[in-house]
């Protein structure tokens, strides 16, 4: 199978003006960066006509392995899926940081046939947003030391300066350093250090701001350190926030690109979830909700970080509210949490899988069990579904040669009764659609629209790896699993599967909170 970069380089991209036209964005509202990426004018976004918001779908995950387990891939695949079944869906993602890109994790533009492109540009400098954020951060750092050097009118205690410099690279040698060495002309020596750009408070503020004026106000509130009397000193006190805002005026415009299937994707901002809130910008999400019918976005790291912060921080600050949540859970991650060394998580180990499932029993909602579990591996699947309090379950089955031969979509009640509402016979089409496409998309659509599930056809390459998605919408919950036996699947991220919902999103009666 071709590698991610080979797939991306072979893609037939549409000009970004054609992608924008699918959203009704005229050329004059774009600021192109070449033929395949562009920024969207803030003036245009401010004038978008009033209309009901699109359905907002949040993709998160159980705690992944150190290499990550495919939230972005699932997000892009689901966005393509919704477009495939006739919905106007927009994928809304964070921009990648060069630290992970050149580290263990690698790029953050998806994988296999579920990528955003141009992939190399996105994973490298893209449109320069991170450079602008780094410069704004370091401008403030320079103004702090300059203020101290020229008399320190604010009485900043050099021992209590909390503001660090940033660089968008993993460089452990710069974490703790001493600055201003070399004599009086270079300032007062003090301890300092570098963070990565995506860990900067400027990045977090950038992604929560709703306008240039709001951005300036938030930047002014940054606390850079304390006086000897331990009174906080802010960027506004240093009169730095205006200049910082000017550096960010173009970066604040969302970036428009496309998926491999030429569907629109907006990438903007990228705070880490372990440091900040792990979500793309509020501006990008709010704009997408006015431009499409469905918006598929993600929150970084596991549900206990990115998704929790999406709900507790981004939603509270912006008024957003997800209509559905998709939790990516994988066999590799469950085996990892079941005690398997990360080097061996791709090997079959049912004992570790069950131990990993048991590790998530604390999050189960409700005690009902489905009747008549499938044999063999599916028994573990049904136990996981029961532990998660799942009310809707979809399973795709394939023959030994990988041809999809059947799919069932069940509605389960808390007593364990199941009623099949969908059966699928395979097609002969060789067209490999994005992973997790039609079955997942129809299930999500059914969860949101409450209009049931229709007869479904799709090609042999579709859903060609094993993965589970969980969607919660009001009081409905759903799950889908696809089998990886077909060789046209995404081999690099095969080995995917089960998971469970966190208790915080569930009530005691097993329904979504």
Give an overview of the whole structure:
With 513 residues, the protein is α/β, with parallel strands linked by helices. 30% of the residues lie in helices and 20% in strands. It is built from 16 helices and 22 strands. The chain has a 15-stranded mixed sheet that branches. It has a 3-stranded antiparallel sheet with strand order 7-12-13, with no helix packed on it. A two-stranded parallel ribbon has the order 8-11. α4 packs across α16, α7 crosses α8 and α9 runs antiparallel to α10. The chain is globular and about 65 Å long.
How much strand?
A: 15-25%
State the helicity in percent bands. 25-40%
The global form is: globular
N-to-C span: 42 Å
Structural class by SSE content: alpha/beta
Give the count of helical stretches.
16
User: How many strands, which pairing sense, and closed or not: the largest β-sheet?
Assistant: 15 strands, mixed
Summarize the structure.
The protein has 513 residues and is an alpha/beta fold. The chain has helices at residues 4-9, 16-21, 42-46, 71-84, 98-101, 119-123, 129-149, 201-208, 212-220, 241-248, 282-291, 303-318, 331-337, 350-359, 377-388, 438-449; strands at 30-32, 38-40, 55-61, 89-93, 110-111, 114-117, 156-161, 165-166, 177-179, 190-192, 194-195, 223-227, 232-234, 255-259, 264-267, 294-298, 324-328, 392-398, 404-412, 418-423, 468-473, 476-481. Strand 12 and strand 13 (232-234) form a beta hairpin.
């Amino acid at each position: 199978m071709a590698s991610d970069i080979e797939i991306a380089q072979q893609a037939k991209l549409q000009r970004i003006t054609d992608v924008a036209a699918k959203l009704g964005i005229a050329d004059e509202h774009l600021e192109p960066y070449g033929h395949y990426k562009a920024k969207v004018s803030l003036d245009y976004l401010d004038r978008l006509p009033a209309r009901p918001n699109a359905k907002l779908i949040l993709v998160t995950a159980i705690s992944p392995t150190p290499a990550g387990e495919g939230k972005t891939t699932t997000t892009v695949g689901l966005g393509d899926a919704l477009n495939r079944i006739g919905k106007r869906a927009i994928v809304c993602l964070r921009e990648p940081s060069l630290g992970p890109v050149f580290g263990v994790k690698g790029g953050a533009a998806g994988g296999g046939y579920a990528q955003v492109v141009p992939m190399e540009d996105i994973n490298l400098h893209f449109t320069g947003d991170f450079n602008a954020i780094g410069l704004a951060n370091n401008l403030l750092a320079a103004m702090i030391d300059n203020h101290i050097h020229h008399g320190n009118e604010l009485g900043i205690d050099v021992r209590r300066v909390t503001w660090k410099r940033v660089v968008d690279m993993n460089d452990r040698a710069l974490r703790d350093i001493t600055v201003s060495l070399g004599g009086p002309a270079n300032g007062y020596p003090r301890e300092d250090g570098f963070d990565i750009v995506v860990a900067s408070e400027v990045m977090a503020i950038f992604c929560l701001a709703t306008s240039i004026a709001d951005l300036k106000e938030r930047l002014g509130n940054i606390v850079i350190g304390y006086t000897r009397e331990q009174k906080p000193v802010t960027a506004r006190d240093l009169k730095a926030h205006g200049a910082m805002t000017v550096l960010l005026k173009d970066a604040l415009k969302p970036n428009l690109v496309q998926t491999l299937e030429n569907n629109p994707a907006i990438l903007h901002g990228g705070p880490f979830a372990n440091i900040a809130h792990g979500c793309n910008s509020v501006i990008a999400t709010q704009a997408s909700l006015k431009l499409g019918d469905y918006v598929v976005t993600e929150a970084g790291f596991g549900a206990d970080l990115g998704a929790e912060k999406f709900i507790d921080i981004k939603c509270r600050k912006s008024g957003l509210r997800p209509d559905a949540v998709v939790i990516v859970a994988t066999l590799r991650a469950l085996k990892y949490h079941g005690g398997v060394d990360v080097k061996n998580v791709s090997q079959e180990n049912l004992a570790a899988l069950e131990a990993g499932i048991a590790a998530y029993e604390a999050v189960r909602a409700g005690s009902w069990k489905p009747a008549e579990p499938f044999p063999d591996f599916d028994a573990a699947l049904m136990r996981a579904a029961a532990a998660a309090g799942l009310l809707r379950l979809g399973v795709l089955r394939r023959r030994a040669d990988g041809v999809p031969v059947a799919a069932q979509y069940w509605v389960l009640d808390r007593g364990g009764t199941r009623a099949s509402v969908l059966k699928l016979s395979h097609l002969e089409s060789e067209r490999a659609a994005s992973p997790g496409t039609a079955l997942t998309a129809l299930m999500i659509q059914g969860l949101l629209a409450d209009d049931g599930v229709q007869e479904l056809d799709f090609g042999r390459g579709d859903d060609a790896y094993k993965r589970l998605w969980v969607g919660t919408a009001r009081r409905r919950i759903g799950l889908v699993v696809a089998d990886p036996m077909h060789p046209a699947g995404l081999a690099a991220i095969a080995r995917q599967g089960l998971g469970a919902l966190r208790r915080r999103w569930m009530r005691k009666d097993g329904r979504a909170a």
